[in-house]
Amino acid sequence: MSELKFKVLDLLREDSRRSADLLSTLLGVTEQEVKAVIQELEDEKIIVKYSTVVNWSKLDEDKVTALIEVQITPERGRGFDAIAERVYLYPEVKTVFLMSGAYDLLVEIEGRTLKEVALFVSTKLSTIESVISTKTHFILKKYKQDGIIFEEHEGDHRMLISP
């Protein structure tokens, strides 16, 4: 992949609202070159979607996020892929990763209440034939996500006292 593509990806990852005009200025190339690179990246499914990172704790919306460690038995011929597909097709599931280590899949889900998340785990996720065990962790507070810090750190405003 060309250096220009990497630079465009990096700048769009920081802020996907940057225009082709601004990107061309930042990169020292023409706007048409930037548009062509973006189109190639979209056509190749390297850029899959443009999204917004939301700090839900600033809203009155009740939302519960959980990370679930899932141990599974891989299926013959398809390995972990078939089970991962069954899991990620549920609308509650936001993210699924194949992991190394003590568990196989890391599943992120969202619900309105703790009970709703627990119900998903007990009735949908843990009932999949290949699932051996699950371990659910509820996110209490997000400090940083996708490189974005949600709360600005206030400096120490105490007076310095020297001995």
Automatic annotation (TrEMBL):
Residue intervals of the HTH asnC-type domain: 1-62
SUPFAM superfamilies: Dimeric alpha+beta barrel (SSF54909), Winged helix' DNA-binding domain (SSF46785)
Keyword annotations: DNA-binding, Transcription, Transcription regulation
Record-linked InterPro entries: AsnC-type_HTH_dom, Dimeric_a/b-barrel, HTH-Siroheme_Decarb, Tscrpt_reg_AsnC-like, Tscrpt_reg_AsnC/Lrp_C, WH-like_DNA-bd_sf, WH_DNA-bd_sf
Superkingdom per UniProt: Bacteria
PROSITE patterns: HTH_ASNC_2
SMART domains named in the record: HTH_ASNC
Classification via PANTHER family: HTH-TYPE TRANSCRIPTIONAL REGULATOR PTR2, TRANSCRIPTIONAL REGULATOR, ASNC FAMILY
Protein's recorded name: Lrp/AsnC family transcriptional regulator
Protein source organism: Ferviditalea candida
